[in-house]
Amino acid sequence: MKKITVIIPALNEEEAIQSVIQKSYHHPDVDDVIVVDDNSVDNTVELAKEAGASVITSARKGKGISMREGLLMAKNELIVYLDADIKTYPKDIIERLVKPLKEGPFDFVKSYFERQAGRVTELVAKPLLSLLSPQLSHFQQPLSGIIAGKRTLLMQVDFENDYGVDIGLLVDMYNSGAKISEVNIGTVENKMKPWRELGKMAKEVSAAILKRTVLRENTRKVLREELV
């Protein structure tokens, strides 16, 4: 049976971090849980170690950097990323995410959950995807950071170091030819972004989508020119 590495980027998540780690180890194939701490000033690090996780401190602040650094430290091919602020994960969260990788022809798994989609998702991400990458517009929560994938493919894509990281991974995986599955992980509750952050989030999500669309179109243009 293939073993699983769970990577949990965290910043000041002392309230939920032990619950997330415990639910990670609930799966019998998880033997590697890595918390990538973004210089927390609360008890996140101490509590993560107490729960049995390996803890590394991110070299530079930002979720994308933390996700990439965790990947570099991972010892297994099957990778799961979990948000550190969710106490309400189902006990079988890991199995739900890795099942398509183990049993199906899939390389990357995106989650969706029972909650009204976020404002940036509905007002920015989905409209942009429907216009620029309609083949991805069916994903219910394209900004979800609760994902799973194969390490060899994740090592080949770009991790944005801002709010664009999750949508960027989805677009990059599709553009690389990866087979993508979307799974329901039940009902979870995470922190809602304050209004003051939504403008920044919308800008960074838009930039991640637009950058990949421009790169793809430029590549096609070069290939067409080479064939003429």
UniProtKB/TrEMBL annotation:
One of its GO terms (molecular function) is glycosyltransferase activity. The keyword Protein transport does not apply. SUPFAM superfamilies: Nucleotide-diphospho-sugar transferases. Its cofactor is Mg(2+). Coiled coil: none annotated. The keyword Transmembrane does not apply. Gene3D superfamilies: Spore Coat Polysaccharide Biosynthesis Protein SpsA, Chain A (3.90.550.10). Residues 5-110 form the Glycosyltransferase 2-like domain. It comes from the Bacteria. PANTHER family: GLUCOSYL-3-PHOSPHOGLYCERATE SYNTHASE (PTHR48090:SF10), UNDECAPRENYL-PHOSPHATE 4-DEOXY-4-FORMAMIDO-L-ARABINOSE TRANSFERASE-RELATED (PTHR48090). Belongs to the glycosyltransferase 2 family. This is Glycosyl transferase family 2. The lineage of its organism: Bacteria, Pseudomonadati, Bacteroidota, Cytophagia, Cytophagales.
